[in-house]
Specification:
With 148 residues, this protein is of the alpha+beta class. It contains 4 helices and 6 strands; from the N terminus they run H-H-E-E-H-E-E-E-E-H. It has a 6-stranded mixed sheet. The longest helix is centred in the first third of the chain and has 17 residues.
């Protein structure tokens, strides 16, 4: 029996809250197919990887940098086997974001994730993250002229 769009959304939202906000990676095997495809652009390089290792690595990097990180889902759109979430992540940089020294700053950044569901599990994921905004908050990249 196929999952409804509402059920798919609930599964994707559960993964976000469990892994990002609570650091519970044990749900990955339950909610992500073993051969899931992750289309990641974090770090400015587009790459495609199979399995949950890429997702685990990205989330682990941010959770190490900001142990108090919390994900808030701002918008949910779902139809058929696709789920789209627009989200905000917020946390304190005590561990160093993206290989930089810890800044101690409270950081907030946004992104959008699309997942394709298959039999109640995430089978494919695309994410766009406002890395420029994050780097501006860290002072690595200057804000645009007139901002402020």
């Amino acid at each position: 029996m196929p999952y409804t769009p509402e059920e798919n959304n609930a599964i994707a939202a559960r993964l976000f809250q469990s892994v990002w906000s609570n650091g519970d990676f044990s749900v990955l095997e339950e909610l992500v197919t073993p051969d899931a495809i992750d289309h990641s652009t974090v770090g400015g390089k587009e790459k495609t990887e199979q399995g949950s290792a890429s997702f685990r690595q990205i989330v682990g990097m941010f959770r190490h940098a900001m142990p108090d990180i919390k994900l808030t889902i701002n918008d949910e759109i779902y139809t058929g086997d696709k789920v789209v979430h627009r989200w905000t992540l917020a946390g304190t940089d005590t561990g160093g974001v993206m290989g930089m020294p810890p800044s101690g700053k409270q950081l907030t950044f946004t992104g959008t994730t699309i997942v394709r569901m298959e039999d109640g599990k995430i089978a494919e994921r695309w994410a766009n993250v406002d890395e420029l905004g994050l780097l501006q908050q860290l002072g690595v990249v200057p804000p645009p002229p007139g901002a402020g």
